[in-house]
Amino acid sequence: MNTSELRNIAQRLMAGDKGLLAMDESTATCNKRFKDLDIPQTEEYRRKYRELIVTTPRLEECISGAILYDETIKQSTANEILFTDILIKKGIIPGIKVDGGAVPMPAFPGEKVTEGLDGLRNRLSAYYDMGARFAKWRAVIAIDNGIPTETCIKVNAGIMARYAALCQEAGLVPIVEPEVLMDGDHTLQSCAEVTQQVLHLVFNELYEQRVYLAGMILKPNMVLPGLNCPLQANADDIATATIECFLNCVPAAVPGIAFLSGGQPYALASERLNTMHTRFDDVLPWVLTFSFSRALQQPALEIWKGDDKNILAAQQALYHRAACNNAARRGAYSPDMETQQ
Fold first, then answer.
1. Mean pLDDT of 227-253
2. For a surface tag, which of 36, 65, 178, 301 has the fewest beta carbons within 10 Å of its beta carbon?
């Protein structure tokens, strides 16, 4: 393990008020989003859409790393330039999603475990040769009657730690993504309690498996009430609950926390990140940034709709969302920015 290289990559990913662009949707997820907008669900249209993303002008001003999918990391532009080469030339570090997805956990109704460790060592080596310098693994934790169980959390935490150790062996910075889902009617306090339990167990496993904390990034959920909770919290309450939780759980050695959006409306995700910075910047021991997918891409996808004549407008929308989140990381975001494209 080259700890200095891992630390350097992690610091580059967290530098300069930038964030991460998650463009690692599986084929099934990407096709579902295309279907909703009547876009043909083919490999060529997925390639065209991802070309739109990686060739967006000035994207590198706001984005330090892009998480790719297995299909995407091998794709090229219409002019046969690899997407990874375009990103690297822009100064955006390519990354790769390596988990095999969440499946039902036997004997634990309503809970899931993430698969994908089989053959991972060889896959990581191949992705490194393709230009990837970081990876991502997601586990999902649901809140409902009687769940999550401690067993489910421990199983996923152990698997994530094993993934992280294998990444560092291969020279890749691991992004560890334990996502407490927004689905349900749970309260803000309930989410805070579960998120704290999850993070304690995850970091215990990372320590036990000798993962180098200065060479990893955490990608968690914000602490939020469930989507169906009758009492929805404001940005101040969410910021307080989230930061208090992380200060209790996340070691200062971790260089950065990059939030997932988790289905939040894009403007709300920006506002909530901004509030965390305006209120707590002076007490944060780690960088606090974004690693959004839908909250960055959705406006651009809705404009593009598979039509080449909409590419420029879609790219402008993508850059605008990236710029909004870049401002939020500085504590400089304002809802007025939403009308200033």
1. 97
2. 36
